[in-house]
Automatic annotation (TrEMBL):
Residues 307-322 have a biased composition (Low complexity). The chain crosses the membrane at residues 253-273. Residues 1-21 form the signal peptide. It is found in: Membrane. It holds the Pfam family LRRNT_2. Its main location: membrane. This is Protein kinase domain-containing protein. SUPFAM superfamilies: L domain-like, Protein kinase-like (PK-like). One of its GO terms (molecular function) is protein kinase activity.
Amino acid sequence: MAVAWLIWPFVLSLTALSTNSITESESLLKFKESLTNAKPLDSWTPDSEPCGGTTQRWVGLLCNKNSVFGIKIEHMGLSGSIDVVPLTGLPALRTISITNNSFSGNIPEFNRLTALKSIYISSNRFSGKIPSEYFEKMVSLKKAWLSNNEFSGLIPVSLATALPDLMELHLENNQFIGTIPNFTQWTLADVDLSNNRLTGEIPPGLSKFDVGTFAGNAGLCDAKLATSCTQGINPSASISIDGTMKDANKSKYYIAFGTLGLLFIIIIISLVFRKKKKKKRRRRRTTHRTSEQDSSDDQQIQVTVDGSRSGGSRQSKTSSSGELTNKSIGTTGTADLVMVNKEKGVFGLPDLMKAAAHVLGDRGGGSSRPSSSGGVGSAYKAVIASGVAVVVKRVTVMNQASIDEFDKEIKNLGRLRHRNVLPPLAYHFRRDEKLLVFEFVPNLSLLHRLHGDHREDFQLDWPSRLKIIQGIARGMWYLHRELGFLSLPHGNLKSSNIFLADDGEPLISEFGLQRLINPDDQFQSLVAYKSPEAERDGIVSAKSDVFSFGVVVLEILTGKFPSQYAGLNRAGGTNLVEWIGSAAEQGGWMDLLHPTVVAAAADDKMSSDEIENVLRIGVRCTGEDPDRRPSMIEVIDELTMQDCSDDFITIET
């Protein structure tokens, strides 16, 4: 017995070894056996390796460092009963796509693959109910495409409760019934529940999506669908009008009248209290205004704008002096500055009119520094008598905006709060020009850091460049989420509109202004109009912002000034999109990167992988077709190395 206890751990270890010793090749061949009409997979043979190189690699597989991370067997006419168990022998597997085949029956046991990040099973003939707990253990899942099948029953509640990072959900063109679970994931960016048999109200977590998300569900009700959610009499219930029914109706009337009476009493009491509170508020406001005015002179206010590429003494060397006078500011429109963000303090128009001002140009102080003009106006850095430094932007391309429209839009922007976003602090309205006030950032803009005449030790190293790219992505996702009602949530993302804080984090400025700019001036004022779809069809969207982000990424990687900016002021530059795209196809893209980036790739394998991944993202963001560009939340996801291959994007080298 003692001997048995001694050898038992050894037996267990042998069992575990034999279980884990199955190769990826054997796992995939076993999986293939469960498929019928599998002739397209003839390259899957025992005498070859799944990831044997680009010419020998098994069809339908995606590999990373000789491990299978993706199975992409689409449009192959495959059918059969999918055996998922063999796939548990693929530890690196993160994505599966079997779309547009002929699979049928219940949903396969893909939930055994708990590390999956994306699953695409659309356009098959799967049917039946999906268990409510099906997705509970798939906590890494970010993309679930189950559309164009014949699924029935309720939407699995685990989709809403167990997947914290869910980004994309497609359930359209099925036969799901019942109410929609309340999806609360902030990451959710792409949802389609159309053409099912869903009923009830649209839950709050999905209220941000447009009506197309819910089309073809006659039982759904919501204000955005123009249908009332009041509950009517159940037509299936047969009720006889007898004495019992009459008594029930009477009791309902008593309850209704009693409730109305109680509400009436509550309203009277609340009105009395409200009057008392108003009197107290008036007294407080008078006291608060006095104290606020007294303390404003002691606040250190720092306020920024597009075009500001250097701070402090650097700026004064390359700027011309001037004054913000009554003539330059004007007296029509609003009587004073309207504060839309008081976190930096409160100040007024008289403070600006008395201040000495410097024009902030895009000249940069040297012919070798390209400019990125074509923004929304000229800028002044003003130093108020108390020592407060502010930057004021004079805007003349918004003279068609009404004061109510302007006030609403700028206040929306002033409410934004994010570590990588620089919102406006105040505005002054005139009919023919407006003033926008921003926080001043004393460091250089990204444009100046990338293209200015700097000593070698002032160059951005690779970790700094990566940090900037990640910060811009976070800030842009925040803008796309908070300003999703705009066709261009930013509209003018370029390196001159990105400033660097003391900790190296980027700060994005000059966003959300498209609706205020005169239509005739938008093409010259906003860099998003340099995207292919804008130049070709005059159409812009949030994906035009993604294109602009991709250009910034390529600019950071190469250190080259993009011709996409030059179109605004004929400053020259390199067409980075075509240049990098052509080099990537030929495998020579590394030679195009900035020397500091190339050196980082040569010194460290991890940095090399990061650089290739970021380049892949930049190329994908600047793609010709806006529908094929990623969303900003996808970009954030892909900037994490282990997520970089979720969407089958690769650059062959």
